[in-house]
Design goal:
This protein has 631 residues and is mostly beta strands. The chain folds into 9 domains: 2-70, no CATH class; 73-121, no CATH class; 127-174, no CATH class; 180-228, no CATH class; 231-277, no CATH class; 280-346, no CATH class; 350-411, no CATH class; 414-464, no CATH class; and more. The protein has 1 helix and 53 strands. The strands form 19 sheets. Strands 49, 50, 51, 52 and 53 form a 5-stranded antiparallel beta sheet that branches. Strands 26, 29, 30 and 31 form a 4-stranded mixed beta sheet that branches. It is extended, with a radius of gyration of 47 Å.
């Protein structure tokens, strides 16, 4: 088949030449398609039912179709399904009755797959009743779509597959109050202003506000300020701490009563102060199971004091366990607050059965100590925890303690650490990826190790660049020329050179120049250029002797890196029309067309070995070079 297609391809290429048309004038358009069962190509309106490659010529255009046909599947095997529901979903179909059905699915190739199903619905004909009690404001949309505006009991029946659903709704409709004419207006008299629902009023208008009723519906409220007296009275009862208190610009250092009047616009306010000095006291009532941890408020002004204290006995505590008074001092005002803790300690009255918990974790295990801290273990160990808790009813009169032993085994993840230097590219088989740049990367494998923990791959990669080398000098000699000098030019100044003539294994030169004399036949020259990072560039040149003036190569190209692990770069002074690669027995293994001075070839599919590279420019000039693939 491939030979037939090749013959057809060559015929299509050669056909225009018979009519005076060059090969480069023809346009090739390739179309890759996938069909299910069949595919109709709109170019020639032909339907194909199997994988094929087709060429079709229209004028100067050659259309190429690469077709893959995936079969549509028709499965006649019966699948018996029994379910307790009222319907059964198969593929995109909803089946609502027992019997034989045909359902359509999608296969792995995205083609239709038809399956025959013998279905039995065990609930077929069942009647399902449900009752809902609900309330709403003004209206309610029932589950069957009706909008209801009055309280009452509603029923509705509907089909549910092979069953019937009977709905009962017990509904209460609460009315919203949105009509201002129905609102009861509160009438008030105020001083200089009136504050209502967070808003300050100074006029005598009627004001409305939208609230929520007990039933959760909108409800209006209104207030009407009848008059303002423009006079307010305010009394402040203040207990101050420290050694002074300032009130409206007056400083007090002892208990006192004082009055002041403030006039703000048209409003007058009489203020009265009742001032006393003294420390503050507070008492809290708490209970604890076996113990109670008391946290002191605002102790930042007392040096050397802990922020909490653990008590294990009942009673009134006014000091900590060291006999130091429970008090706090505000850091800015100097006010002292004396604290008293009325504590009831409940001893555990029922001990839960001791338990041993076997725990296995990868690399570490984190457990909580109490409620506020945690600890991380990274080695095998056994430890015991005691936990106190109140009874399930939340009462402080019952509390429990439990002792639990944890037997911990730490399993370990696997880390594959790869430290490597490579030239130009590196293939990491851990994640099947090629790299062209230096990197430090961690990748987690989807497969666990034998201990059931993750497998991590760590790559520490340094990519060094193969030097780019060009060879200058005359390589095509006429019959009267018997010598030439080749000069290597590299983009890397830290390189070494080795020139080899023919099949010799001893270098003919170790500088960047090679002088050749007494040439009377063709000579193959191989230049090996090695960087200080051990990246090697190979260049081959053929010195052609006794060439007539018309046989001189006009096409110059730079080919690197050579050998290559995957990507081969070609740079030419002339635009490249075609590149072809042949193996050692002359078979063409790769070909590509273009119209550019620079081409990149991916040789990842070629085996290691020597190949011949042929480059053809758009002007028809040709050169051949030896290349090497070494992965």
């Amino acid at each position: 088949m491939k030979k037939v297609l090749l013959s057809l391809f060559m015929a299509i290429i050669c056909l225009p030449m018979a009519f005076g048309q060059t090969k480069g004038d023809r346009v090739f358009l390739t179309q890759n398609e996938t069909g299910c069962g069949s595919f109709t190509w709109t170019i020639n309106n032909v339907t194909y039912t199997e994988d094929t490659t087709v060429m079709y010529v229209v004028g100067d255009t050659v259309y190429v179709l690469n077709l893959t046909v995936n079969p549509a599947i028709y499965d006649t095997a019966e699948v018996v399904e029994a379910t307790g529901t009222c319907f059964y979903i198969a593929g995109n179909d909803t089946l609502v009755s027992s019997g034989i059905h045909y359902a359509t699915f999608k296969s792995a190739s995205n083609c239709d797959s038809i399956v025959k199903i013998n279905l039995t619905l065990t609930n077929e004909g069942l009647v399902i009743d449900d009752t809902l009690v609900s309330s709403s404001c003004d209206k309610y949309v029932a589950s069957w779509g009706d909008t209801l505006t009055a309280s009452g009991t509603y029923t509705h029946s509907e089909a549910n597959g092979a069953c019937t659903n009977n709905h009962m709704l017990v509904l209460t409709i609460n009315a919203s109050l949105t009509d201002t004419s129905a609102v009861v207006i509160d009438e008030v008299e105020a001083g200089c202003s009136y504050v209502w629902n967070g808003t300050t009023y100074t006029d005598t208008a009627i004001h409305y506000v939208k609230l929520r009723s007990v039933a959760g519906c909108d409800s209006l409220a209104a207030v009407h300020v009848l008059s303002y007296s423009n006079h307010n009275y305010d009394t402040a009862n203040v207990v101050a701490c420290g050694n002074q208190y300032t009130w409206y610009g007056r400083r007090f250092t002892s208990a006192a009563q004082a009055d002041t009047t403030i006039v703000a616009g048209e409003c007058t306010t009489d203020y009265h102060l009742n001032l006393t000095f003294g420390d503050a006291y507070d008492t809290i009532v708490k209970s604890g199971c076996a113990q109670y941890v008391y946290t002191f408020p605002a102790r930042s002004g007392i040096a050397g004091r802990d922020t909490s204290e653990t008590f294990t006995t009942s009673g009134l505590h006014t000091t900590d366990n060291n006999g130091v008074e429970l008090y706090s001092k505000h850091w800015s005002t100097g006010c002292i607050t004396h604290h008293a803790l009325q504590l009831t300690i409940v001893e555990p009255q029922q001990r839960e059965r001791d338990t041993v918990t076997v725990v296995s974790a990868c690399d570490k295990y984190v457990f909580t100590v109490g409620r506020t801290s945690s600890d991380t273990l990274r080695n095998d160990t056994t430890f015991t925890l005691i936990h106190y808790a109140h009874g399930s009813n939340g009462s402080s009169s019952i509390c429990y303690d439990s002792i639990g032993t944890i037997d911990l085994t730490i399993r370990h993840s696997t880390v594959n650490d790869t430290v490597v230097s490579a030239c130009d590219t590196f293939y990491w088989d851990f994640n099947d990826t090629y790299y062209t740049f230096s990197t430090v990367e961690e990748v987690k494998d989807t497969i666990l190790n034998e201990e059931g923990c993750s497998v991590m791959g760590k790559l520490r990669l340094t990519i060094n660049r193969t030097p780019t080398v060009t060879i200058e000098g005359k390589t095509v000699l006429t019959p009267d020329e018997t010598s030439t000098t080749l000069t290597a030019i590299s983009d890397d100044s830290h390189v070494t050179y080795k020139w080899y003539k023919g099949t010799a294994t001893t270098p003919a030169s170790t500088t960047n120049k090679l002088e050749l004399t007494g040439i009377n036949s063709n000579i193959d020259v191989h230049l090996v250029t090695t960087s200080n990072k051990n990246c090697v560039a190979n260049n081959w040149v053929t010195i052609t002797s006794n060439v007539g003036i018309d046989e001189v190569e006009n096409l110059k190209a730079n080919i690197y890196p050579n050998p290559t692990t995957r990507i081969l770069k070609i740079e030419s002074a002339e635009a490249i029309r075609e590149v072809a690669i042949f193996n050692m027995i002359g078979q063409q293994v790769l070909s590509t067309n273009g119209n550019s001075n620079e081409m990149h070839l991916d040789l990842g599919n070629l085996a290691n070995g020597q190949y011949t590279l042929r480059i053809t420019s758009v002007n028809g000039d040709q050169i051949t070079r030896k290349i090497s693939v070494s992965k």
